[in-house]
Each structure stands twice: as structure tokens, then as C-alpha cells.
Amino acid sequence: MTKPQAILTDATKCIGCEKCVDACKRENHLPDDLSRSWKVRIDSLSSTRFTTVVRHDGEYVREQCRHCVQPACVSACPVGALQKRSDGPVVYDSDRCMGCRYCMMACPFGVPRYEWEKAVPHIKKCTMCAPRLDRGLQPACVEACPTHATIFGDRDELLAEAHRRLRASPERYLQTVYGENDVGGTSVLLIAGVPLDFLNRGRAPGDRPLPSRTWAALSKVPTIVLAVGGLAAGTWWITRRRMKLAEMNAEALPDSASGTEAHPSGDGAPQDSREAVQDKGSGSGGHR
Ligand code: SF4
Ligand code: SF4
Ligand code: SF4
Questions:
Q1: What residue numbers bound the domain in which 157 lies?
Q2: Residue 149: CB within 6 Å of ligand 3?
Q3: Is 125 close to ligand 1, i.e. is its CB under 6 Å away?
Q4: pTM value?
Q5: Comparison of pLDDT for 97 and 222, the residue scoring more
């Protein structure tokens, strides 16, 4: 079995070139960032930007999904669309997702984003380049970094490397490895010369894994609410299954026999006011 892997980002080595952002966009076929009226900064995480680099207290800090060891998003998802792999990545299956956005509410770092602009929206976030890991490659962002500010490897070895740097240059680093214990540990680790608490988006996640708290909170929700939620999930699954079968049947028929036409995609999805609130609350400025 593969040992748990991780990404270590050293903000003191980052020059803010955003080669990691560009590589991520290429790897995931992400379009240019949208300029949205309700967004304060174009360089924050979004459905078209799985990683970003922000200027904070004189250092460049790269943000992405932290790939928590015990992810709150996974425990909050009622249909198992998010899963934690034993080698580190937290991956997402859009075919299972029913669009409830519980993962967005559960994530302590405000990471998952929603494709509000799409007629059939999905959740979007960094996948730790799981398909590349399966091919024995490094994450694209790591491979692209010209200063090795962000590196990839066994989580235990990267933790040892982070502590070695902190010991060797105490004047350069805050004596904290972000992600070592936060919310029970994460598979993305950060070290820096300045505090990075702004990444918590005004919350105090602590060291305790969040899934236990998620279920403690759910246990206080009246049974009727959970039952209605379960019914909605079941109804959604059946509807989705019927739609898939209908699609498969239509594909199996010759064009003339199916009698169907493609529908133009619509718009008018609600806007993500939460992204704007999070961006305003991060306390860091964009550098573009
Ligand atoms: S940072 Fe958020 S989205 Fe990423 S694994 Fe943790 S809880 Fe899930
Ligand atoms: S690990 Fe892959 S998906 Fe995640 S930020 Fe890096 S390039 Fe993007
Ligand atoms: S590629 Fe490396 S140096 Fe450039 S912004 Fe990304 S992490 Fe920083």
C-alpha cells in the first residue's frame, strides 16, 4: 500500500510567479478566471482556480485544498461524492454529487467552490492531481515550481523536512508547521515566516478532527430533518439514475429514431455571496 503522500509549501521560498496556478489550469483544463461583480479579488480560489497565490504580510502564500486526513467535507456529504484516498488526495465524483453543498459548509478552510455559472453545476476543488499520482507523476503545480517552494513526497518525510528547516533557520521561520495537527492533520503542509491563520477564514478549527464534530452536530438535528434529507437524497438518486438510463437509451438509438434535440444550456443560477464574504474576511490582498 502507498504511504500517505503530501505537499509541503514553504512561503519563504515562493516568489509569487504563479507558474503553479498556470500548470494547475492546464492540467485541469480550467478556463480563464471570470470577473464577477460580487467577487472582490480575481485571484481567490474559485471554480476556475483550484490553487492561488496571495500576498500576505510580505510573503507569497499558496492556497489549495488541504486534503485533510479526516476531512469534514467527506463526512458531511450524504451521497459519498467526496472520498479520502489512503495515499492522500480527497477526490470528488461529480456523478454522485446531488448539489446540496454541505461540503462547502463543512470545510473549515472554505475550499470547495460551486459552478454557479453552469446550468448543471458541480463542486470544484484541487484533487491533489490524483490522476497524475496514479501514473507515478508529481502534482502539476509541484512540477512547475521553479524555486521548489512547493514539494511533494511521503507525509512523514515532508514533516521531518519542515521541522529540519524550522530548526536550522529559526530567524526565518515561525515555529509552526501548518497542517501537522490542524483538524487532525492535513496532507498539505505549510511553513512560513509569518502567521498563516488567515487561511482559516476567521474560524478556529483546532486540532480535533472535524468529522466527529460534524456527527455530534448532526445528532442534535431532529430525526425528522434527517429523514427528509435522506428522502431527498434517495429521490435525487432515483431521478439521476432514470436520467442516465434515458441518456444511454437515446445514445443506443439511431439519431432519426431518438427524436431528441440538444437543449441550449440555461443560466440564472444564484450567486455565491459566501465566496465574497470569505474573500473579504481573509485579510490578505491579491497581488495581481
Ligand atoms: S480542506 Fe476542505 S475541501 Fe479540502 S479536504 Fe479538507 S474539508 Fe475537504
Ligand atoms: S495538486 Fe493538481 S489540482 Fe491541486 S493545485 Fe496542484 S495542480 Fe492543481
Ligand atoms: S510556482 Fe512556486 S514560486 Fe511560483 S508562485 Fe507557485 S509556489 Fe510560488
A1: 5-209
A2: yes
A3: yes
A4: 0.77
A5: 97
